Amino acid sequence: LTSSLSEEPFAPDTLGRISVPNFEGNHVSFAAFSRIETRPTVSTITKRNRAISSTIRGYLRDENQAGVSQRMERAISSMSLPPGVRWRRAGTTELIVDSMRSLAQMLAVAIFLVYVVMVIQFERFAQPIVIMASVPFCIIGVVLGLIVFDSALSIIAMLGIITLGGTVVNNAIVMLDYVNTLRQRDGMELRAALLEGASNRLKPILMTTMTTVFAVLPMALAAGNGSEVYAPLGQAIFGGMITSTAITLFIVPALYEAVERKAHR
User: Fold this and answer.
1) Among 232, 206, 207, which Cα is nearest to 219's?
2) H or E segment and range at residue 198
3) What is the 3-class SS of 126-184, one letter each residue?
4) Contact 65/93 with Cβ under 8 angstroms?
5) Which pTM was predicted?
6) What is the mean pLDDT of residues 247-253?
7) Which pLDDT belongs to residue 63?
8) Which of 12, 78, 137, 153 falls between 20 and 30 A from 189, CA-CA?
9) Secondary structure of 201-261 in the HEC alphabet?
10) How confident is the model at residue 107 (pLDDT cuts 50, 70, 90)?
11) What is the DSSP letter of 42?
12) Sign of the C-alpha dihedral, residues 159, 171, 132, 213?
């Protein structure tokens, strides 16, 4: 390109006055065969999956990632985006969503393995299902524990739920195994065996629960730098163990009796 311009500030018609030589050697300006317009644009064009993309970054003032993400999704969903324009989460929000999905899969695998172990131990399929009934009810305690301590459901809290998946069944195993022993060894009737087993195993169950609860209580009450990272783990276990104990003492025996009477009929 040969410019016929001297050093001067850029003007809207600067490019139009730039000339190029043709086949005959004459110089022709850009304005003779083109139309030049000034439009706003970005400094760089980024493509992802063969589509032009733009990243909008934001920095939180507090640690409530879930609340900010929900408000952001509601705001964007209420907007009428042009055809062909799509959006998705990225950065820390995307990482948290992917991590939650992976942790949910790990929880499902953990529950399945615990069930398989109990089937081998009891040599039955129905009784392990009764024992596993205490697992979903512990979620109530996890939610209440997080609410009481004013915490949000995080990746660390999900780790606590996975831990509870293999812990809350211990009390039910201790009680129902003794009930089966009373029925098989002493020939006791179902209701009498349940009452005897629940009363005799009440103290071991409470001792096991209290040792676990008091062990995680300092973690749940932790304050200071970095406590918001690991405190939800103790809070989730604290609440889940309390509710699972109540489930073990009241609901599990009732479910056991209903299942056994149906099997007997």
Assistant:
1) 232
2) helix 190-200
3) HHHHHHHCHHHHHHHHHHHHHHHCCCCCCHHHHHHHHHHHHHCHHHHHHHHHHHHHHHH
4) yes
5) 0.65
6) 85
7) 61
8) 137
9) CHHHHHHHHHHHHHHHHHHHCCCCCCHHHHHHHHHHHHHHHHHHHHHHHHHHHHHHHHHHH
10) confident
11) -
12) negative
Token output for 178: 């003794």
**235, 146 contact by CB (below 8 A):** yes
CB 257 within 8 A of CB 162: no
DSSP H or E stretch at residue 51 = strand 51-53
- 76 Cβ partners below 8 Å, 6+ apart? 87
d(CA 265, CA 263): 6
20 bridge partner residues: 28
**Neighbouring C-beta atoms of residue 247, cutoff 10 Å:** 21
Average pLDDT value for residue range 249-259: 88
pLDDT at 11: 62
Rounded to whole angstroms, the Cα distance separating 17 from 22 reads: 15
Check: CB of residue 123 under 8 Å from CB of residue 177: no
**Separation in Å, CA 182 to CA 130, 189, 198, 260:** 18, 9, 11, 14
Residues 144-195 pLDDT 10s = 888 888 887 778 888 888 888 888 888 888 888 899 899 988 888 988 999 9
Question: Which tokens belong to 221?
Answer: 């009450």
